[in-house]
Amino acid sequence: MPRRNPKAKELTQTIAKQRMLKLISFSESAIRNGNLELSRRYSLMASRIQSHYRIRPSLRNKVCKQCKTLLVPGVTASVRLSSKNRYIVLKCLLCGKESHKVYKKQGTRTLGA
User: Fold this and answer.
1) Distance from the Cα of residue 86 to its chain's centroid
2) What is the pLDDT of residues 71-109, one digit of tens each?
3) How far apart are CA 35 and CA 9, in angstroms?
4) Burial class of residue 43 (count of CB atoms within 10 Å of its CB; 0-12, 13-18, 19+)
């Protein structure tokens, strides 16, 4: 079995990445127009493209893992900060699934003499 050309693999990766980003923008516009089922379909296709072609820019914080809806703050998701535990709480307003992402608080540095 002949090996694949590395340039062909790069080309398919870039095309898949462009299609994924276009599907995400279509999903955002469908949410803004009030069509949640169409938006869910677009985000599901984008996540399938991302997993099939192993594209690096992750959809982890953009798509709900449970209901596969695009998470738009204020429309389909609520975002809260927990300063005590230093994480971001992203909650889907359709299914109630919560995801947490740790962030680091930028501290002040003292300059040594």
Assistant:
1) 21
2) 989 889 999 998 888 889 999 999 999 988 888 766 656
3) 35
4) buried
| Residue 54, phi then psi, degrees to nearest 5 | 55, 55
> Which residues lie below 8 Å from residue 44, measured CB to CB, with a gap of 6+?
68
pLDDT in tens, 4-44: 777 888 888 889 999 999 999 999 999 989 898 999 999 99
Distances (CA, A) of 111 to 85, 104, 105, 107: 27, 20, 19, 13
Q: Do 16 and 8 touch, CB atoms closer than 8 A?
A: no
Q: From 12, 13, 28, 15, select the one nearest 71 (Cα to Cα).
A: 28
Question: Domain coordinates of the chain in residue numbers?
Answer: 6-102
Residues with Cβ within 8 Å of residue 42, at least 6 apart in sequence: 23, 24, 26, 27, 30, 70
SS3 for 23-40 is HHHHHHHHHHCCCHHHHH
